[in-house]
């Protein structure tokens, strides 16, 4: 004798079960960190993270690196690398040094740490640059689009003028001519 069983219709929803116990807190993201810091693995161990300031920040196509600097350095100062201290920049007040300009200070993070733009668009507010021409640092440290205005010192290209006010910062990493 053989029997054939057919599945019937589903029954009504049963009542909810009792609430479970609360679990222990997960590892999550460690507390702390400041603006522009990133969460970084510090070893191969699970959950071994620290907050860290990256060596280079890429912000909207710009390369910006935090460097140590003198307290007197200000936003808008063009800087070169220190020849005596690691990870430190020195303000270029003129074009008489053989050390090449590397960028411009865009923000002071603290009294002695600044963000230095190595590549990017920088608004000088000058209104005197000539679009499409190289921008040079003159003897007094000011910027010009005309190489003929640089009459002494080292001819230092700091970028190219995108408008009367804006430079595409990309310094030549060597002085190209002594005048």
Structural account:
The protein has 179 residues and is an all-beta fold. The chain has a domain at 55-169: Virus Head Decoration Protein, Chain: A. 0% of the residues lie in helices and 35% in strands. It has no helices and twelve strands. It has strands at residues 38-41, 49-52, 57-59, 62-68, 78-81, 89-91, 101-110, 113-123, 134-137, 143-144, 156-161, 166-169. Strand 5 and strand 6 (89-91) form a beta hairpin.
Looking at the structure, what is the overall shape? elongated
**Radius of gyration, taken over Cα atoms and rounded to an integer in Å:** 29 Å
Outline the low-pLDDT stretches: none
CATH architecture of the domain at 55-169: Beta Barrel
CATH class of the domain at 55-169: Mainly Beta
Terminal CA distance reads 113 Å
Strand tally, please? 12
Mean residue pLDDT = 81
Q: Helix segment count?
A: 0
Largest sheet: 10 strands, antiparallel
Beta-strand content: 25-35%
Output the CATH topology of the domain at 55-169: Virus Head Decoration Protein, Chain: A
Structural class: mainly beta
Order of helix and strand elements from N to C terminus: EEEEEEEEEEEE
Percent of residues in helices comes to under 10%
């Amino acid at each position: 004798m053989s029997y054939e069983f057919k599945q019937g219709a589903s029954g009504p929803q049963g009542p909810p079960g009792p609430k479970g116990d609360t679990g222990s807190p997960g590892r999550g993201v460690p507390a702390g960190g400041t603006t522009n810091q990133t969460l970084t693995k510090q070893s191969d161990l699970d959950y071994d993270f620290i907050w860290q300031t990256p060596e280079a920040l890429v912000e909207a196509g710009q390369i910006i690196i935090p460097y140590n600097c003198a307290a007197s350095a200000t936003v808008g100062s063009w800087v070169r690398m220190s020849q005596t201290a690691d990870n430190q920049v020195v303000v270029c007040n003129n074009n008489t040094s053989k050390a090449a300009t590397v960028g411009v200070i865009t923000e002071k993070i603290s009294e002695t740490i600044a963000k230095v733009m190595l590549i990017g668009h920088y608004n000088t507010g000058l209104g005197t640059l000539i679009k499409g021409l190289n921008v040079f640092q003159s003897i007094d440290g000011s910027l010009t689009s005309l190489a003929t205005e640089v009459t002494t010192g080292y001819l230092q290209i700091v970028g190219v003028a995108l408008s009367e006010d804006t430079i595409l910062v990309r310094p030549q990493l060597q002085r190209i001519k002594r005048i």
